[in-house]
């Protein structure tokens, strides 16, 4: 089945945050969450995507829950547009406010998207299935030597986060990147999404 099948299934989920179906895309840093979320958003007719890199900061790698709930989740829950100030990782400061419309499906992408405080507001949770060491190696390669100090602090912080507040056990679906697309498999959680298996290919259908 095509990635659009997954999009159709997400559209049919009950709203979870006011009129919005909030869908989390979680996984280790470097696992491909951003790219997958953008492709899924395209299949959802350009659904809005909130990147948690815009909510986190150098000082609050994982201490952003209050800001996410207050600036994004609560307004969406009232059926209103949300406004948040994305963090500039180069300038180490927040930028101008950015709007997030209350679309039928809104994707929340980033490490911690399925954390305990956010899950009650999610219609579904997808987990990028990649071993943490492989994901971190990809992330380091992507960011280059200029970000080596950041990664030295990030890895232990992420370890602590998932040890204290794991997301994968609550994932409805596991997303595995293949050479020619994605394979979406049932996750550990017992939900209506759990039985769905989806593949998305750029070329003819094939077995991953």
TrEMBL record:
Instruction: Say which domain of life the source belongs to.
Output: Bacteria
The protein's name:
Uridine kinase
Taxonomic placement:
Bacteria, Bacillati, Actinomycetota, Actinomycetes, Kitasatosporales
